[in-house]
Please model this.
Amino acid sequence: MEKLVLHLLVNQHAGSGKGARQYKEVQKQLIAKEIPFQTYLTEYAGHEREIVQELLKGVLTPYKDNKPFEHLLVVLGGDGTLHEVVNALKHEPTIPIGYLPSGSGNDFARGVGVSRKIDVALTQLLAVQKPKPISLMEATDVDSNDTRLILNNVGVGIDAKIVATANHSKAKSLLNQMKLGSLSYVSAALSSIFKQPSFPLIVETSTEKKEFKKAFLCTTTNHPYFGGGVAIDPTASAYTEDIHLIIVEKIFPLSLAWLIIKLFFKQHLTSPHLHRFVDSELTLTCPVAQVGQADGEELGERNFKLRFKTTQRLFWM
Ligand SMILES: Nc1ncnc2c1ncn2[C@@H]1O[C@H](COP(=O)(O)OP(=O)(O)OP(=O)(O)O)[C@@H](O)[C@H]1O
Model:
């Protein structure tokens, strides 16, 4: 690690300003430890990709065992910022990425075991000797053939509605300032859960095809967490090549309330209202317009036909 130069890509706005505060802390510690670094502040959404494109011109190189490795890209931001960077490096899976989580939900950090305390996360990062492969989902829009890499989850229905409500709520900023960023998803859930209509859905795995007439929640996940720490599938892992799909059908409000209580105690997987599919490849079709989300970023309201598989990339973790 001695000769490594850190290239910090920082979203100061992540976590409603937590990114800026945590960057100051990281800067202080790197100076104290005499670790060389350069900083690239994002100035607008999508700027991440331009910064990465510039760094690809001679700074960032693939990691090779037994070869000197001198320049490490480190993302300081939330899941959305990391999502952009991972996708900017979609064709460079052997260029490692380090991560210092500073968002509201930080589900990827939870899923892969990176501390959400910035000083601990920095200590973890600086202790790494070589990168490790982590599985990501690859989601392809079958109609447009657009493919994007997914760190956490892709949802259609209620979880996408919750993401949209949280992203546009004033409570998110307030809760982030109170260091309760995850609660912004809880408050968004309470305001949208009973308004979500049911929708038809078709699931195709390598062994079966199943149709749901009244789906309500549909989340394809890479690791256990969504919505700022809710373990939607406690058995999922970013260290296997399985994709986990959870579907809940529209049920009576009382049954739904009971399912939510079970969810918080991680007892929900046995519910008869919940369907779970685990496979290395699957396709989801929602033939009517619905809201969608990918890693907490809104996909808008439309029909979806999405094909999922997994792929691995190197992370400095
Ligand atoms: N300077 C910027 N100004 C506005 N938006 C930015 C800027 N830099 C990055 N973004 C965008 O902000 C979006 C949200 O960022 P991010 O997800 O990192 O933070 P968050 O929403 O607070 O965290 P989380 O996803 O963990 O809840 C991303 O789509 C990212 O591209």
Q: What stands out?
A: The longest strand covers residues 297-315. The pocket of adenosine-5'-triphosphate is lined by residues 11, 13-15, 42-48, 77-81, 84, 103-106, 296-297 (CB under 6 Å).
